[in-house]
Amino acid sequence: MNFLLFIFWISGGLIIYTTVIYYFILKVLKQNDYEKNEQYLPNISLIICTYNEEKNVAVKLENTLKLDYPREKLQVILADDGSTDTTVEIANGFELVEILKLSRGGKTHAQNEAVKKARNEILVFSDANNIYKNDALIKLSRNFADKKVGVVCGELQYHHKQSEENAYWRYEVAIKEAESKHGCLLGANGSIYAVRRDAYISLPIDSISDHLEPILIYGNGLDVIYEPEAIALEDAPDEVLSRKRRIILRSLGSMKYILPLINPFHKRSIFIPYFSHKLIRWFLPFLFLTCFITSLFLSKDNSFFRILIFLQVGFYSLGLIHSGIRYIIKVNIASAMAIVDWVLGKKQTTWNVIR
User: Fold this and answer.
1) Tell me: the pLDDT tens digits for 213-226?
2) What's the average model confidence in pLDDT over 200-218?
3) Cα–Cα distance between 287 and 139 in angstroms, integer?
4) Looking at per-residue confidence, does 302 or 219 come out higher?
């Protein structure tokens, strides 16, 4: 029985730590100050990766060419990952857009190839299914006035405020803002993030670029921060399970490339944020399951654990009627599936458009 108590409190403690305590640790520790300069307008290469985006690419390119940024300072590259629809033909109708037509190799491969074509000092990475607010590039670029900054992550917002992901996303944003104050934001958002050209690292094609690139750049000595006013808008995703499963699987597969930085004795170690924000979070479904099973055994002789069983069952049951709780449950199911895939050695380098 003592062993079951130990297992319960370890699992429960890790759940509380990653969801609550870690955030307050970030808020209490000394935070960095970063310079922002609205007048700082470096030359930008905006890289848009596409695969079968014929429904979105025209709107995206129209939006891009109307952004509030000096046109002479902006290079637009469309890196097409072997589309089989009319994406490239539609993009050909836009002047000033440089099209890089590639064979199917995955988004990371497309980005690596596009960077070779990029001429400017700041790289901005985007997808075809989002729309930037007019000042998004200005808001991103102003942070690079501080030479300590190597990566700036913008904010993705969904058009439909009632999306079940919104509450979870607000929580994630709070964590991002706190990590940003320490210059160690673990990962960016593939829809809108910017990198110094001379800091960019060409990545293995099986890695997830918006997760791995910022971590490696941080390890090389530059900080990774969050810019909440650089906003990209897109429709809320329809398919949660497969999307989250794919993202987490690729993130787990990328872990082998950052092992030296996970070492707590490394000068630019990411051990604390990676363990606290990523690793425990991915394994949450197994921690929840462990808490539930140990509670069942412990409840036979303990009223405290009987109450806990009731609360756990009640929480999971609320997922039937509450979209936010349902989303949390879906994310944890996706995590469990991704971990099983990872253990079985599965990989995913390409992506299919799911709208």
Assistant:
1) 999 999 999 999 99
2) 95
3) 39
4) 219
75 forms beta bridges with 45
Bridge partners of 57, per DSSP, are: none
Q: Tell me, what DSSP letter sits at residue 184?
A: B
Residue among 114, 49, 42, 120 at smallest CA distance from 82 = 49
Model pTM score = 0.91
DSSP output for 99-112: EEEE-S--HHHHHH
The identity of residue 276, as a single letter, is: S
200, containing H or E segment: none
- Give the DSSP H or E segment for 148: none
Q: Which two tokens stand for residue 217?
A: 């750049």
Angle, CA of 217, 218 and 219, to the nearest 5°: 90
Q: Which residue has the tokens 């210059």?
A: 183
The side-by-side arrangement of strands in the sheet containing 74-81 is 97-102, 74-81, 44-50, 122-127, 193-196, 149-158, 223-234, 131-132
Residue matched to tokens 């997830």: 208
